[in-house]
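Section 5: illustrative case.
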């Protein structure tokens, strides 16, 4: 499903984000990406949704070949994935319902299909009673649930979660992980960059450790095991 083949990304300032990185992710996996700050996790994550492209090497995602993709292909790639950010990135002037519905509107989903689907995913994340609230009326955990609902409303094949529990307390982090585990159990691939040692060690999934822009450890059922 996702193949990095000797991928390197060098920024304009000469800094190398990832170097000669090779890895594969199969459909239906749950993968943690771990490593120290500056290890290359953010570069890898941003490449997945085409915010960044390789300087060299070969990258394919969902049958999209980054070497041959045209600019008009990028929206199609992104339709196959949902992205969850640490800082939520909700639209402040839209309600909970409107934030999630917007993800369907931008891909021109028929209006008749939007309401039932949005209500369904908001029920899945436990926010069916707060559809008219605005982001500033929600707790951090509730905002992250909206972010997850928005990420899954278009039924993506892969969900990319970039530090989704980074700004949350431990109990709320566990609630967010419960939701991501349910998303995964439904067959969706989940790739999650995280510094949360407790979550990685208590909810066993594949662990890929990045250091110096390269994969230094890849374990099917790994633990965090990264020095601070």
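Designed sequence:
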């Amino acid at each position: 499903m996702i193949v990095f083949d000797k991928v390197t990304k060098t920024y304009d300032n000469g800094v190398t984000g990832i170097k000669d990185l090779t890895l594969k992710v199969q459909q239906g996996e749950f993968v943690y990406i771990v490593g120290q700050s500056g290890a290359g996790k953010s570069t890898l994550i941003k490449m997945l949704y085409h915010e960044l492209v390789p300087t060299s090497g070969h990258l394919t995602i969902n049958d999209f070949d980054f070497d041959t993709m045209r600019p008009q292909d990028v929206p199609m790639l992104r339709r196959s994935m949902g992205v969850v950010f640490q800082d939520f990135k909700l639209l402040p002037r839209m309600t909970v319902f409107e934030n999630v519905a917007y993800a369907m509107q931008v891909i021109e989903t028929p209006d008749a299909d939007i309401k039932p689907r949005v209500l369904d995913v908001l029920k899945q994340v436990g926010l069916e009673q707060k559809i008219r609230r605005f982001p500033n009326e929600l707790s951090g955990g509730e905002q992250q649930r909206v972010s997850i609902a928005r990420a899954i409303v278009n039924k993506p094949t892969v969900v990319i979660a970039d530090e989704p529990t980074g700004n949350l307390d431990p109990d709320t982090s566990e609630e967010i992980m419960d939701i991501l585990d349910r998303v995964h159990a439904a067959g969706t691939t989940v790739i999650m960059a995280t510094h949360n040692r407790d979550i990685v060690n208590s909810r066993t999934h594949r662990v890929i450790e990045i250091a110096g822009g390269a994969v230094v450890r890849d374990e099917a059922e790994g633990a965090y095991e990264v020095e601070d």
